[in-house]
Amino acid sequence: MTKVCDQLYHRHRFPAEIIAEAVWLYFRFPLSLRMVEDMLAYKGMIVSHKTIRQWAEKFGRVYANRIRRRTPRLGDKWHLDEVVVSINGKKHWLWRAVDQAGFVLDVLVQSRRNAKAAKRLIRKLLKVQGRAPRVMVTDKLKSYAAANRQIGLTSCDHRQHKGLNNRAENSHQPMRRRERIMKRFKSSRQLQRFVSIHDPIANLHNFPRSTISSPDHRDLRHTAMTAWREIACVTNA
After folding, report:
1. What does the angle CA 148 – CA 162 – CA 202 come to, to the nearest 5 degrees?
2. Which of 33, 116, 121, 129 has minimal CB crowding within 10 Å?
3. Looking at the domain assignment, is residue 236 inside a domain?
4. In 71-172, where does DSSP find H-type helix?
5. Where does the DDE domain lie (predicted)?
6. Range of the domain at 6
7. pLDDT tens digit string along 187-202?
């Protein structure tokens, strides 16, 4: 593990602790790059926002992939939803799937809101999760039912009701906050790259407060931070 960590941060002037903290702040909270720059400067660490952006792109992807490998199989009740995102004056759709506990299963940026786009998301979910859902909850968009028929996914209980899909709709809120902070995303590739890093990190720190007592919540937070330090190869934080 030490050799892998040495290779990860090889030829970087700043130590792993500073890089990991910058990436964690950027993806964990709705902060701009310049805000992270100011927060590090307050602690006496002078890093430009351009360097932080490079760290976020390089190390964020490594951290996210490591989190995915450590993540156990998530829930079998899938909540699917799509939300429009304006990029350079054109409509794109952010398709999102979460389980019954609010953990993000996958996110896909697409230019269409039709059965083909829904089928692409569901096929990706089936491949990554390795099983069909027990229950699928969507809004009343007919594309989901059409995609299920084309794929042959008839074993799950498909519930189409807008009021039942609040969990997926609420999962979009962090992206909406980030969109305002970043003054909109510049391209669909940038958005896909960002959410593919952001959501695994969010999953690592997802503690449903409504079902967890305060002592358990503190234990889970401690466990998440310990896991983060292991993932980022940080010994002291």
Report:
1. 80
2. 116
3. no
4. 115-129, 142-151, 166-171
5. 76-204
6. 2-70+207-231
7. 999 999 999 999 999 9
140 belongs to a structural domain: yes
What is the crossing angle of helices 142-151 and 115-129, to 10°?
Answer: 60
What are the φ/ψ torsions at residue 109 (nearest 5 degrees)? Answer: -95, 125
- Are residue 85 and residue 43 in the same domain, yes or no? no
Output the CA angle 36-40-46, nearest 5 degrees. 115
The token pair at 184 is: 């909109």
d(CA 49, CA 38) in angstroms, rounded, equals 9
Counting the structural domains of the chain, the total is 2
Domain-located, residue 93: yes
CB 99 within 8 A of CB 77: yes
Express each pLDDT in 18-49 by its tens digit: 999 999 999 999 999 999 999 999 999 999 99
